[in-house]
Fold each of these.
Amino acid sequence: MSKAISVVVIGRSLSQQERTHLRSSSQTPLAIVAELPNAPQVLDELNRLRPQAALVLLNGDLHHSFQLVERIHQELPATAVICSSEDNSPDVILQSFRSGAVEFLRQPLAESEIATVFAKIEHSVARPEESHLARVIAVYASKGGCGTTFVTANLAASLARLTRKRACVVDLNLQAGDQPLYLGLEPNYSIHDIVRNFDRLDEQLMANYLTQRSKLLSLLAAPTEIGKDEDIRVEHVTRAIALLRAQVDFVVIDPPRMLNEITIAALDAADDLILLLTLDIPAIRSAKRTLDIFNRLGYDKKRIKVVINRFSKTPEFDLKQVEKVLETSVFATIANDYQAAIASINVGEPLVLSKTQSRVINDFNLIAGKLTGFREETELPEAPRPAKSGWTSIFGGKR
Ligand SMILES: Nc1ncnc2c1ncn2[C@@H]1O[C@H](COP(=O)(O)OP(=O)(O)O)[C@@H](O)[C@H]1O
Ligand SMILES: [Mg+2]
C-alpha cells in the first residue's frame, strides 16, 4: 500500500493548481482522498475515511468553519487539522489554533509553506502500517487503441483474483464507456446516478451504483444514455473515487484520453499511474509527450509505471531503446495475443478469468504481483458464469 499521508480537503474543491501544489511540494507524498464541502455529513465521511490530516479551507461563515474544526479535533483525535485562509489576521490564526488546528496555511497555498507544514505534521500523524483505504490505479494512454480498456478490465480482474480482495473498475469514458462489454455486464446504474443524488450520496448509496461481476469485481459504469455525460463534473468524480477508496481494495480507472479536468482529477487521485503504450512510433511519441505533461503536473516519478502492451520482440524496437527515448524504465510488458484478446471481449469475459491459454494472462498476473507483492499460490478460478455474447449486448439482447 502507498505510504502517502492521507488528506481530506474540506470547504471547497481545490483548483487544479492547488492540487498540484499540494501533491508536489511536500517531501512526503500526500494522497488527497476527498474534497468535501462543509456540509452536515462531513463528519460521517471523515469517520469512514479516517484521514491522517484534514485541511480545512476557511471560507464563508467562519464561525461554522471553526465549529467543524473543533468537532474534528474532538471526534477524530488521530486526524491532524490544518486550517487555511486568505485572511491571515492574528485573529483568524488564533481562532484556528484555539479550535484545535495544529497548523495554519496561508492562501494562496505556497509550496514552501506546504512543505514545512507537512514535514512538521508527518512526525505527529498516526501512520497505520497498512492503510485500509483502497489503492487507486489509473491506466492511461494518450493515444487510442493502446488497450486501455482491455488492460483496465483485466488488471482489475487479476488483482482481485490474486489478492482475493475487492477491485472496482471506474469507467470515465463518459461518452462511450466500453467497460460493460469487456466485463460482460449490463449496468443499471452509472456515474450519472451520483450526479442525480449528489446531496445524499454516501457509502451505501454508492455501493448500489456499482454493477457486480462477482463478489470481488465490480464496475462503476459510464452513463449508458447519450447526453448524460454533460452533467458530470470534477467533484462528482473525485467524490466517487473517495467513497470507493473506503469501500473496496483496488480502484482501477479507465480514464478518457483527452486530458481534461476530469481526467486530471482522476490521475491526481491515483497512487499508481500506468502509462500504457504500444511499440510503434506514434504511441512512443505520444507517451513521451505524456511523460512531459506528467512532469509539468508535478507527478512524482515513483507513481508512474510505463507498461508496454501488445509486446512482441521486433527488430525495430528493443526495450532498451524505448527506455532511452522515454528516459525511464519499463515497468512491465503485456504480450500480443490478438485472438485471445478479441475472443475474450466478444464473450464479455476478462481474459485473465478465462481458461484460455495465453501469455497475456501470465503477464497480467505478473503485473498484479509486482504492484501488490502478492504471489500466486493456487489457481482459484471464479465460479463459471454463463458465457454471454458481447454481440447480444450491442445488437439488443434482453435488457
Ligand atoms: N495484449 C493484447 N494483445 C492483443 N490485442 C490486444 C491486447 N490488448 C488490447 N488488444 C486489442 O486492442 C484493441 C483496442 O483495445 P482497447 O482496450 O479498446 O483500447 P483503448 O481503450 O486504448 O482504445 C482491442 O480490440 C483489443 O482486443
Ligand atoms: Mg477505451
Note: The mean pLDDT is 87.
Amino acid sequence: MDFRLQMVKKRLGTIDKVLLVASGKGGVGKSVVAATLANHISGEKKVGLLDLDLHGPTLPLLLNHGGRLKGREDGIEPVVAGGVRLVSLGLLTSDKAMPLKGEVKRDLIIELFSEINWGRLNYLIVDLPPGTGDEALVAVRLTAEKASAILVSTPSPHSLGAVRRMSWLLAGEGAKIAGLVLNMAYMADSIGVKPFGSYDVEKVGEEVGVKVVAELPLEPEIASSTPINMGKLSEGFRKGLERIYEATRAL
Ligand SMILES: Nc1ncnc2c1ncn2[C@@H]1O[C@H](COP(=O)(O)OP(=O)(O)O)[C@@H](O)[C@H]1O
Ligand SMILES: [Mg+2]
C-alpha cells in the first residue's frame, strides 16, 4: 500500500466532515461560497479550508491572508484567517503560475491531503476548480467516506447543464450530494431583479437532479472588492449560508 494513503487516512481521522464545493463551470462563485460558508460555520465549529484551485488560488485574497505556509515536523501548518484554518498554494507561490499536469498534479493533491496537519476539525471545506478534472476526482476518491458535495451554479442554462454532469461524476464516485446552490440568483439590493432571468426553483432542481438548498444574491460589495467583508453581507446571503449549513448537517 502507498504509505501516503495511510497518512491521508490518519489525517482524515481528526476531521468529521469534508465538504467539496464543486461546479461544472468557472466563475460561478465556488470560491466565494467556500470562503463565506467557512466563515459562517466557524462561528460554531472548527473549520478548515483547502484551496484546490491549484492554477488559480483565490482564497488568500478573499480571506485577506498574505502569510506563508510553514512546514513543521508534524506536517504543513495551516495559516489562520479569521476563525478559519486555511491552506492554499497561493500561500506558497504568491503570483507565480504553477505548471502542473497529470501525474505531478495528482501527486501534489495526495501530498496535500497527507501532509497538512489540520488538527481537530468539524468541517474541512474544499474549494475545487471547475469541472471533472484531477482535482475533483482525486479529492473525492481520497475523502470518499466523509465527503459530501455542495454544487454551485448560476441559474443560467449553460452553467446548470455543466453542473448536472458534475453531479453525475460525483455520484458515480459514491459522494453524497448536500445540494445545489444557485449563486447570483437575484440582486441583493433589489430582490425582484434576477441577473440570469426568472426560473422555477423546483424545476431547476428536477432538471439537474439535485435539490436546490439555497439561492444566494449577487452582492455588489463582493463583486467589486476583496477581501470579503462578512459584516457587510446582506441578510439574504447570510440566510442562504445558514441553509447550506443546515443541508450539510443533515448528512
Ligand atoms: N454572490 C456574489 N455576488 C457578487 N459577486 C460574486 C458573487 N459570487 C461570486 N461573485 C464574483 O464572481 C467572480 C467569480 O467568483 P468565484 O468565487 O471566483 O468563482 P469560481 O470559484 O466558481 O471560479 C468573482 O469576481 C466574485 O467576486
Ligand atoms: Mg474558484
Note: The chain has a mean pLDDT of 94.
Amino acid sequence: MRVAIGEFHHESNSFCSEPTRVVQFETAPVYLDRGWCFGEELLAVARGTHTVLGAYIEKAAEHGWELVPLAAAETMPSGEIEAAAYAEVKEGMLARLRAALPVDGVLLDLHGAAMVEGLDDSEGDLLAGIRRLVGAATPVVAVLDLHANLTQEMVDAADLLLGYDTEPHTDIYERGLEAAELFAAIARGDVTPTACRVHPPLILPAINTCTERDPMRTLMQRAFECEDDPRVLDVSVFAGFYGSDQADAGASVLVTTGGDADLAKVVAGEMGQLLWDLREGFIWPLTPVADAVAAARQAGGLWAFIDEADDPLGGGPGDGTAVLRDVIEAGVTSAGVCMLCDPEMVEAAFRAGSGGVVEGTVGGKTDGRHGAPLPIRARVVSLRDEAIPFACWDPTLMQDVGRIAVLDADGILIPVSELKAGTEAINVFEVLGIDLAKLDVIILKGLGNTIKRAYGDIPRGYVEVESQGINHPDLRKMGEYRKLRRPCFPLDDDVEFGAQ
Ligand SMILES: [Zn+2]
C-alpha cells in the first residue's frame, strides 16, 4: 500500500500586527527540528519524533506501507500566513501527490486554525485540493489540534478527522497512532466513517480549556463514554481558537461513526448541547496587578503572575511589558519575567559581554498593544547560544530561540531572546540557571494550566492577572472581530442555541 503523508500546522492570530512568512517556518519550529521541508527530507526530520508524523512513519513500518512524503510546514502561533507561503506549501504537497498517483490513502497532520491572507479556511482548501486529486474512494485522514476551528468544508473533504484529547497537548503522538490505525481499518474496508459536526455559537478564550479541569474534563469524560459504543469511531471536542477572525472560529464537536449517520447526529446533538450548557465555565476572572502584589506581599514567598494576554503560543509577540511595568510600579523590587523577545537588546548584551552593562528600552517593540518599551539600565548576568526545551514532559522537544541574555535591572531579572519563545511548558528560569528562591514575583506568559504543570508547587501561588494584548481572556478586549459569525457567546448578549 502506498500512503502519502504531510503536515500543515499553524495557529493563526488575526490580531497580530505582522503576517507569518516562510522565514518564520524556517526558523521557529515547534514539534519538528525543521518546520519547513519537502519530499524525502520530511522523513529524515520526522522519523523517531514524538509527533503525529513520527507516529505515521512508525505505523507505516509496522504495516509495511510505502510512504510518499509530501511536505511539512509548522511554526509558532503568529499572524495570518502570507498567501505566497501557503501557495508554496499547498503546491509542494499537491505536486508531489500528483506525481505519485495512484496512492492508497493520505494521512495528514493539520492544526485546524490556520488562516491565510485572503483565505480563511486554509485547511478546508488544502483538504479539498487533495480530495480532488485522489478521488472520493481514497481515504484521507487527519489529526487536528484541540484548538481547531472546524469547518464543514474540512469535514466534507476528509474521511476522518481526529482531535487531540488533551490540553496541555500531551497526546499528540498517540492521536497520530490512533489516526493511522483507523485509516488502516478504512483502507481495508472494515469501516465506512460518517461524521456529524455541531457548532454552537461559542468563541472561547483558552484560559480554561485544560482537559484536567472542568468544563473540559466533563466534556471529555462524556466523549469517552460515547466512544464506548462500538458503533462510534471517535468523538472530538474542539475548544476552537479565539484569535482567528473567521466566520467559523470557535468551539465545536465532531462525532464520527462507522456509517451510522443518525447515531452521529444524535451523539453530536447531545455533545453540542452539553458544550453550550457548560459555556459559563470557560469564562475566567483576572486580578488587577496591584491587588495581586498586595496579596502576595501579605502571604509572603514566591508568587507567579500569569500574563495570558501576551501568550506567545497564542500568537502574542512575547515581548509584552504591561504586567512587568505594573509590578514595578506596585513597588516590587525582586522579580523575574519569562521572557521577552528583543533581538536589539540581545545584540547589545552580547556586545557588552557577561558582567557588562546595557542601557536602553526592553520589550514592547512589536506592536502598541502589549505595553510600551520599558527603559532599563541592567547588568548582563549570563549569555547563552543554544536551544532550550519546549515541554517538560517531552525532553526530545527543543526550540531554537536564537541567542539569550539574562539581564538584571536592580533586582528585576529579564531574560531576553532573539526569537519569540514559547515557555509555558518549561521552568525556563531553571534552564537558564536563575535561582527562584531569591525572587518575590515571577511573571509567566502563556496558559495558566500549562504553567502550573511546569512549575508545580515551586511558587506559593498563581494569579492570572489583568494585562493587555491580542490573547486577552476577556475576548471583548481582543480587538474587533470582523468576520466571526454573530451573535456569538460571550461577545454578544442573548445568544441562543438549540441543538438540532
Ligand atoms: Zn492547541
Note: The longest strand covers residues 374-384.
